[in-house]
Amino acid sequence: MRRVTADEPARSLRARAEAERHASGGSHEAQPGRRSGGGEYWNLVTAVAVVAWLVVLGYSALMLQPEANGSVRRVLFFPEVPYQGAGHSEGLVLHQEVRYVPYRSQQESALRLLVEETILGPADHRTHHLLPAGVQVISTHVADGVAYVNLSHHAWTGATAVASTGAERIATLTDVILVNFPRLQAVRILIEGQEPRLKSAPIEGADNG
Questions:
Q1: Which pLDDT tens digit goes with each residue over 46-73?
Q2: 169 near 128, Cβ under 8 Å?
Q3: Which pTM was predicted?
């Protein structure tokens, strides 16, 4: 006669569970497969995130290089037209004007275009020419972080609608260049190849264009 022990029901349950596991074709062994499927999902999510990041990076690079669109943003400064009856004051009151100009790959060519745009004058009726319309750009040159701009004598002696000194014009043009070419260390404006005197009497206003 077989003795029934206290742990026999437990052995029976374990045996039944083992039999069911084999009958189901090893369903418990399929668990690693489900974990593997989860890993593939996260790999896909990571790949999509990387692609999205590359797209954003490329778009940001494009926005930081307006030259790719064929034009570049420039900031010009022009003197405000004084009120009627106002005389010459200490310094020019300047107004900022944003302008988009064609892109030039060569820095000297881009510098020349900037000066020529300044000579053309403002689009805003509240401001007037910084330099006389007859000014010619003789040459532009950049070396060792210094920009050299050689202008005709009209830049110093010509008249504009707003009374100003040659020194004020040169100082303003220097600011325009440094604002648009921040990597430059200095700017030297020449008049017919010579450095002008920094002090000069104000040139009376006379609209010549």
A1: 777 777 666 545 544 443 355 546 999 9
A2: no
A3: 0.61
> Are 57 and 94 part of one and the same domain?
no
Both 166 and 139 in one domain: the answer is yes
Instruction: Quote the percentage of the chain above a pLDDT of 90.
Output: 44
- Residue 176: closest CA among 82, 56, 103, 94: 94
**Burial category of 202 from C-beta neighbours within 10 Å (exposed 0-12, middle 13-18, buried 19 and up):** middle
Among the candidates 63, 88, 109, a domain finishes at 63
Would you say 166 and 156 are in contact if contact means Cβ atoms under 8 Å apart?
A: yes
Assess contact for 76 and 122: CB atoms under 8 A. yes
**For residue 85, is it left (φ>0), alpha (ψ between -120 and 50) or beta?**
left
Distance CA 179, CA 120 (A): 18
Which two three-digit tokens encode residue 28? 């418990």
